[in-house]
Amino acid sequence: MNEGQLRDKLAVERTHLANERTLLAYIRTALGSAAGGAAILQFFPPHSPLVGLAWLLVAAGGVMLAVGLYRFYKVRGELNAAK
Prior knowledge:
Blueprint: H1 3-43, H2 50-82
Helix pairs in contact: 1-2
């Protein structure tokens, strides 16, 4: 393996690792959003105006998780196809 091939292989590996880190960031953000919404639901009465915000945060967490997973698998597929 020459220097150029090694450099290309290492670049692809770095991109795989960056893709995984990005997925973990999406998961962390989604869990934080959902946990914030759950905390509001736990500590405020059911008829509080904040309940709508709480459900919005929980739903946003689910959407963020779905977007992160979609993006991860899309990029992973493109990287595997480029090999």
